[in-house]
Amino acid sequence: MLTIADILDDLRKLGIKEGDRVLVHTSLSKVGMLEGGPAAFVEAIVSAVGNEGLAVFPTFTGTAQDSAENPPYFDVRETPCWTGKVPEAARRREDAIRSLHPTHSVVAIGADNKQLVKDHEKVETPCSHGSPFMKLAENSGKILLVGVDHNSNTTFHTAEELADCPYHMLPEPALATVVDYQGKEHKILTALHKWGTERDFNRLEEEFIKQGIQRNGKIGNALCRLIDTKPMLEVAVAILKKDPYFLVVN
């Protein structure tokens, strides 16, 4: 049975330091049996980055059914995410704050968490300029993939949006309903991802390792990847601007 101390030790070995700003994508089942379950894993991440750091978890709610005709409904206090037990545990913490984006919200715990999630619902596209994903890239953020590969790395959507990949967004926005922390309902015009195009984000993994952008290790039994967000985006966007379909599976 793993403990928080075991997870913290593995995080340190992988390269997580106090003060880091980390977006975490997790398959906890790959880690192994952990005393305290998902909440303990969140606590280990929060402890690893410390009081000056920031732990961020994806709490996505968007679905393939979202459209202008079927707009999303999102209550920041109640709507559960489909991204796993760890993000669900994170969003239930009293020290967590969740962004108001109707499809791609994140939970942030730690220093400047309010600034990270601020105005996410107002962005032009879910993961681009002004989003938490872009803010992390602009502030020396890192991405931690725990037991998952780059196909779970949402920041690739940031790259696709910055490169204006033609397959990625629905042509029509939707008038989403968002309920804030005070219970007030807002109507927000939001751009939607277009589901259905198969991609292979792992195509760039060797390049990331070659350039020193990515380090691999283990947390418990899980193979993990720690990626520097800004240079990762720079590599991906440069390639996608030359070939927008580079990551698409033919």
Any overview of this molecule?
With 250 residues, the protein is an alpha/beta fold. The protein has one domain. It contains nine helices and ten strands. The strands form two sheets. The protein has a seven-stranded mixed sheet, sandwiched between helices. The longest helix is centred in the last third of the chain and has 14 residues. It is globular, with a radius of gyration of 17 Å. The protein starts with a helix and ends in an 8-residue tail after the last helix. The model has no long low-confidence stretch (mean pLDDT 98).
Short account of what is shown:
The protein is α/β, with parallel strands linked by helices. Helix content is 30%, strand content 21%.
Q: What ranges have pLDDT less than 50 throughout 5 or more consecutive residues?
A: none
- Per the principal axes of the C-alpha atoms, what is the gross shape? globular
Cα(first) to Cα(last) distance is 43 Å
- Count of the domains: 1
Strand content: 15-25%
Average pLDDT confidence is 98
Which class of secondary structure composition applies to the elements? alpha/beta
Total E-strand runs: 10
Rounded Rg = 17 Å
Order of helices and strands: HEHHEEHEEHHEHEEHEEH
Query: Strand sequence of the main sheet, in spatial order?
Result: 4-5-2-1-6-10-9
- Biggest sheet overview: 7 strands, mixed
In DSSP terms, counting alpha (H) and pi (I) runs of 4 or more, how many helices?
9
